[in-house]
Structures are given as structure tokens and as C-alpha cells.
Amino acid sequence: PGYYMLFLVNNKGVPSMAATVRITATAAAPPNAPGGVTATAGNGSASVLWSAPADGGSPITSYTVTPYVGPVAMTPTVVTGNPPATGATVTGLTNGTTYTFTVTATNGVGTGSASAASAPVTPSGTVVPGFVQQATAHAASVTSLSATPASGVTAGNRMVVEVATWGPTNPGAAGVTDSAGNHYVELTHFTGSDGTELSVWSAQITQGGGTRPVVTATATASADVGVAALEYSGLSTVSDTSVLDQSAHATGRTSAAATVSSGPTGATTSANELTIGLYADSGFGDTLTPGTGFTGRANVSPTGDIEFLVADSVVGQAAQPAATVRTGTQTVWLLATVVLKHS
Predict the structure, then answer these.
(1) What is the pTM of this model?
(2) Residues of the chain with pLDDT under 70
(3) Of 35, 47, 288, 332, which is the most exposed, with the fewest CB atoms less than 10 Å away?
(4) Which pLDDT score, from 0 to 100, does residue 15 have?
(5) Closest CA to 331 of 237, 258, 278
(6) Closest to 164 measured CA to CA, from 101, 216, 227
């Protein structure tokens, strides 16, 4: 920074003009406060997610997550990396005690102001599965399609992925992978009368905790493809299909706008199990609505290629849940209900 005299010269090297120019530099500052802080309670722990703030002109080097019991700050958790993840599991919490969480960001200049506090959560020894985040994508005439979570995933959580496909050669889903290397297994698949296939895949997150792994579904041939990738906490950590307790599915064609059902599953074997309803059709321009008792998590409708919806509910032991969805007229629909075991 400073003042400098600049000279313009002609082709004979003789100065022909002079000007004084002031050059300034903008000093870096600490980062802004992180945004969108959310917390999900676990057993003696909580999964905390946030969005990265403006870095103040210097790269963010760490985040500090601070639990609070009322106004009292507890032991913080520091997240580092290049760049640091925008999520963390805070351990050492007391079951039955209610906590809120704030997050600060640090760069080479200093630490910025704290975020707004998360909503309060209460860790418990009784694990109740919880929705964390979702990402969706849909495209026509592709052989693969990817969706990327908005925030870093948490190791020990579980990804559940719906894949819907339709094409003139009746393609299906060949598999699901992610860029972190987690292992996906197929929990169910079935086909509608127009060749639309709905399949459900799942993986425990053992790789890529704190990152945003790209989840990719591959089709057996060119197809209209829809992908919904959802992260849940509190589910079984098995690596195979034994995570599935019960399931049911149905498909049909409406003559008028109607509420359709997967039909009931078998009786659940434990309390606090996660029930997920997953709907798909090949794109009839319908506006989809989840049924009573289910919370909508992902909804891509109305579209002309692939429409799909995911909704969930936590149910008690011996329940026989049946997901329902409101759809449109003259629609070939597919709807599954899967019940997953908790951790």
C-alpha cells in the first residue's frame, strides 16, 4: 500500500505523461458467525451441523462447538481440517440434561462471533432415530445421477437412498455408491406397470465423516432418474440388510386424484423404529402430499420426468405402519414402506 508515480513513455523511451496512483490493501478480518446451527440428540451425545460463514478474507482453519446448559458453557469441541467440516458429534453429554449449542469460526486473524444457539435437545439412553438432512436430484435420459448433502455427514449415522428410474427399455438401478466409499445394500425394489422401478438402498456411514460425500445412483441403461439421499441418526450400525425390520410395497394406477397406500408391514419387533415411506412415478405432473402421521422430508413434484417423495415416522413395537401419499389422476404409482431398526 502507498502512493506511486507512474510514467508513460513513447516509443523512443521519452516520458510523455505522469500520474500518481494510490494502492490500498484490505486487511483480513475474523470470520462471520456460522449459520443454521442444528442439533440432534443421541445417547450421551449430540450431532451438530452448521453452514460455513464468510471467511473474512482468510481461510477458516477451525470451528469451535460449545454446549450450553442454560447460560453455562460446557467443554467445547474443536473441529479442524482443510477445510474443516461443518458438522461434529459432541460426546460426553449427560442423558436427561437439555443442551443448546453455538459455533464459532476461526481463521488466521482470529475467532469470529458466535452463532445463534441451536434449538434445545436432550440426550437420552433411549435412542430415537432422527432425520438429519436430505439431498435430491432428477434428470431425464441419463445413466447415472448424483446428489450431495448440504452439510458434512456424521460417522455412525446412516444414509437411506431412494432411486426411481423409467425408460423405454425398462431400466432399473444397478447400484448406489458414494465418493467416501461407504457400502450400500439394496433393501427392496419393485416395478410398476409402465416400467418405472423404485428401489431403496442404505449404508452405515463409516467413511467420510464430516465431509459431504457425493451419492451416485447408476442405472442399467439410459433412463429418467430420481435420487433422494437422506441421512438419519440413531439407526442400527449393521453393514448388511439386517437393518431392515419390516417392509411392504404396492403399485397401481389411479383413475382420479387419490390417496394411495403401500399396505401395512408386518408387526415391528421393537419400539422407536424408523418407518420411511417412499413414493415414485414416471412424471405425471402431480403435486404429491405425504399422508397422515408421516413427516415429509423430500418431495420432487410436479415434474414431467420423475416424481418422488420421502416421508418418515417413528413407531412403537408391534405396529404395522402403512405409508400413504396423495397423488394425481391417471398416474402409475409406486409406494414402499420400510421399517429400520434403531441402534
Answers:
(1) 0.72
(2) 1-26
(3) 35
(4) 57
(5) 258
(6) 227
